[in-house]
Amino acid sequence: MSDSIWHEVADADRVVEEEPIKVQVGDEEIALFNIGGDIFATGNICTHAMASMCDGIQEGHVIECPLHEGKFDIKTGAPLCPPVFEPLPTFEVKVEGGKVFVKV
Ligand code: FES
User: Fold this and answer.
1) Is the pTM of this model over 0.85?
2) For residue 53, how far is its CA from the centre of ligand 1 (angstroms)?
3) Is residue 1 part of a domain?
4) Which residue of 15, 18, 21, 56 shows the fewest CB atoms closer than 10 Å?
5) Separation of 64 CA from ligand 1 center, angstroms?
């Protein structure tokens, strides 16, 4: 999106592997994930229903929804198994000075 801007959302050391956290940018709920030391951001709301993805189970680059066990690829947002068919939105991430910034 051409009018996206960087938003500081968290201290980088809060984003621990397999313990995703939720942050908020305006109306947008975003989940932050640590995969092997790199941070990724997706929409926090499952595209199947209203579950919070940061309450799901992360295994590597896959997040399993806590409600009906749909799975997404965190890096791309792609749905990996039913009942999820719509991708999660993903957001660019950068880390500067120990802070996480997300482009929204
Ligand atoms: S709400 Fe996520 S799979 Fe149903």
Assistant:
1) yes
2) 9
3) no
4) 18
5) 9
